[in-house]
Design goal:
The complex is a heterodimer of chains A (36) and B (652). With 36 residues, chain A is mostly helical. Chain A is built from 3 helices and no strands. The longest helix of chain A has 11 residues. Chain A is flat. With 652 residues, chain B is an alpha+beta fold. Chain B has a domain of 125 residues: 3-Layer(aba) Sandwich (Rossmann fold). In chain B, the strands form 4 sheets. In chain B, strands 1, 2, 6, 7, 8, 9 and 10 form a 7-stranded antiparallel beta sheet that branches. A 6-stranded mixed beta sheet of chain B has the order 11-14-15-3-16-17, covered by helices on one side. In chain B, strands 4-5 form a two-stranded antiparallel sheet. The radius of gyration of chain B is 37 Å and the shape is elongated. The chains are: A mainly alpha (36), B alpha+beta (652). At the A-B interface, helix 1 and helix 3 of A face helix 5 and helix 14 of B.
Chain lengths: 36, 652
């Protein structure tokens, strides 16, 4: 229920990848940026 | 997660190897383990905790004294130099896969009869997938933590002795912490912090590779963000100070309640403060109603114009200009056919012809006439709405004035009480009250500081929006380091998005917990018609409201407090994502038969698996009958005073 709610919580939506449950985060952000 | 089986070996008073199979069917999901006081219920409960998390994990202490884990009987039986092994094996199902975990501690018996215990225990995990493939897990601690995080453990494996902690008047901090951990708010906050840290590194790197103008802008942005973080840190510190001051006030109140000379005055103060809190809430609601009326009352401003328009239209109606007795199209048709209204033909220029032409020139076109009539109806509806709106505003303003008066008089009563206490001839009372007043003043100052800090953060955020526009422009001009710029942009936007949504998510979760707690509490408590509501406000105080609208928490009995606390814990486990069993050690301790029966009936429906450690008194008669159909496994703990060991006996 809650995970769905978090998903529902308008490229940035990176957030779901990061949602922990810095190297890893850098990989996620770099892949999304490669937007370019 | 569903527990299947546990094997305990030489753990505290459990000598040799002993095994328990837990009930886990949809229908029969309850395992009951009976034992009189001292038979070993808490040791058994502890063995599950130890197997899952060891003695401590992530700085959370699970077990205080490692040396006491090993069975004394096993040690006494062992020969000098022999290795003694204490272990707990646990099998469980999770997401369709079967896990087997084992925690083991070894020691060697020395010549003086003591045991040299290994410094660390060993922990291993095997996983069998749905296709029967078994594998050893390389990161068992991390995997266990992702199945049921250690920091939420105590909300699923909980000790009945501590169960009423959440319902105590000073428990707001624990309630807040529990919600923060179990409902993933911690994960959100950690994600924001880590994304922010990554963005800081990107910004540094970009600054080193940029031209002067962009470098200056990035530096300014970094400075603003640091200031925001500093203000946030200070808000956190101030909240801690507020908690601490409020705790000191609560301690003084408790002391004054206990003292013979002051207990009546303090009880009066408790009552007034409860009413004051309620009136302030009511005042907030009224003010927000008035604000709502103000924003929806735009038509009141046009009242004079509306009245004038209605008057003009009424005059036209009185003069017969609207509505016309004939529609324009009908008259045009008559003129074209040269026929009178009565059907008689007429000549060009005749009196009938002139009359019809006059009607055409004085009347309104059909479409316009319809519009005018519609507008007339709309304007009259507006006029009625204006009157109702004015009456609503008047009534809300009157209520607001009444509430302000009530609040002032309650505050005056509180001041008077405080003066009496400060003027007490007994030095201790006078000193306590003076200290209380100082703490109250501290809280007011801290709250004011929080408002100032929030304003500062808002201003800085506005500045950041402007800076971002300039940075984007400068970046486009430089056209260097496009990938790095994009990384910074995305990481920062993701961190900001989490920050933006955090509070609304936290509020939403708090309200869900509140509603679920209320639903469960009303099922479990026997005076359900006396208790109207359960509130969990932004201050995280768990409140029960009685049928008169007053806070009922100060009058809750120890049993009712336990039921409230249990309802909160159950609500947490229902709202959270964790599909974990509920393991409860002596949950019915202080409850009367009414509550016991209700809990025995509803508890199995609120958890996917339930393991209860109970004394012989806790689950009998009607409570036992209410749970009977759900019990799938039952054991009795028999303590032998000859060997000081406990034997686990299955009840057939």
């Amino acid at each position: 229920m809650q995970k769905e709610r978090l998903m529902n919580l308008t490229a940035v939506k990176i957030i779901l990848g990061v949602l922990e449950q810095k190297e890893h985060i850098d990989e996620i952000v770099t892949s999304a940026a490669k937007e370019v | 997660m569903k527990l299947e089986r546990i094997t305990i070996e030489n753990f505290r008073q459990y000598c040799d190897k002993q095994r328990v199979d837990f009930a886990k069917d949809e229908q029969k999901r309850v395992t009951v383990i009976h034992g009189i006081n001292g038979a070993g219920k808490t040791s058994f409960f502890l063995s599950i905790n130890w197997c899952l998390y060891g003695t401590s994990v992530e700085n959370i202490k699970i077990i205080d004294n490692v040396g006491e884990l090993m069975s004394k009987e096993a040690v006494s039986r062992a020969a000098i130099g022999e290795t003694i092994r204490t272990s707990v094996d646990l099998a469980f199902l999770h997401n369709g896969e079967r896990y087997q975990i084992k925690r083991m501690l070894q020691g060697v018996k020395l010549i003086d009869g003591t045991v040299k215990v290994e410094e660390n225990d060993s922990f291993s995990m095997m996983r069998t997938k749905a296709d029967g493939q078994a594998e050893r897990i390389n990161n068992p601690i991390g995997t266990m933590n992702s199945i049921l995080p250690a920091n939420v453990r105590e909300y699923f494996l909980f000790d009945g002795e501590k169960i009423d902690n959440f319902a105590k008047p000073e428990a707001a901090k624990q309630v807040k912490q529990a919600i923060y951990l179990v409902l993933k708010l911690e994960i959100l906050e950690r994600s924001r912090r880590h994304l922010e840290a990554v963005a800081v590194e990107y910004r540094k790197e970009l600054k080193n590779k940029s031209g002067q103008q962009l470098r200056d802008l990035l530096e300014e942005e970094e400075k603003a963000r640091k200031e925001i973080q500093k203000s946030r840190d200070r808000i956190y510190e101030v909240h801690q100070e507020i908690d601490s001051a409020e705790q000191k006030i609560a301690d003084i109140d408790k002391r004054l309640r206990e003292m013979e000379n002051t207990n009546i005055l303090q009880q009066q103060r408790d009552r007034i403060e409860r009413e004051l809190k309620q009136r302030r809430t009511e005042l907030e609601e009224i003010v927000s109603t008035i604000q709502g009326l103000a924003t929806s009352g735009y038509f009141v401003v046009a009242e004079a114009a509306i009245k004038k328009a209605i008057l003009l239209l009424e005059e036209k109606r009185a003069r017969g200009e609207i509505p016309s007795d004939f529609r324009q199209q009908f008259i045009k048709d008559l003129i074209n056919k040269m026929v009178c209204v009565c059907g008689r033909p007429f000549d060009d220029g005749s009196e009938e012809h002139r009359t019809l032409l006059a009607k055409i020139s004085h009347g309104l076109p059909d479409a316009l006439q319809d519009e005018v009539l519609n507008t007339c109806a709309v304007l009259q509806a507006f006029e009625q709405r204006t009157e109702k709106h004015r009456a609503d505003v008047d009534s809300a303003m009157r209520r607001r004035a009444e509430l302000v008066d009530i609040i002032r008089s309650l505050e005056a009563e509180l001041d008077d009480l405080s003066r009496q206490l400060k003027g007490s001839p007994l030095e201790e009372i006078s000193k306590l009250e003076r200290n209380r007043e100082n703490f109250k003043a501290d809280v007011r100052e801290y709250n004011f500081e929080v408002v100032i800090l929030h304003t500062r953060i808002d201003d800085l955020n506005k500045k950041l929006v402007e800076l971002k526009k300039e940075i984007d422009r400068a970046r486009r001009e430089e056209k260097r380091e496009v990938l790095l710029s994009t990384k910074l942009d995305l990481a920062q936007r993701a961190a900001d998005a989490i920050g933006e949504m955090y509070q609304s998510f936290a509020d939403e979760m708090r309200e869900k917990i509140q509603d679920k707690t209320k639903e469960i509490f009303k099922k479990l408590v026997w005076k359900e018609s006396h208790f109207q509501d359960v509130k969990l406000g932004p201050d995280f105080n768990l409140e029960v409201i009685d049928r008169y609208g007053y806070s009922a928490r100060p009058e809750l009995s120890a049993g009712e407090r336990q039921v409230l606390s249990l309802s909160f814990i159950m609500a947490m486990s229902r709202i959270s994502d964790e599909e974990a069993p509920l393991v409860m050690d002596t949950p019915f301790g202080r409850l009367s038969s009414h509550h016991r029966n209700a809990i025995a009936e509803h508890l199995p429906t609120l958890a996917s698996q339930l393991i209860l450690f109970v004394t012989d008194e806790e689950l009998r008669d009607e409570a036992r009958q209410n749970m009977e159909a759900r019990i799938g496994a039952e054991y009795r703990l028999e303590f032998s005073s000859k060997t000081s060991c406990t034997e686990i006996i299955e009840v057939k």
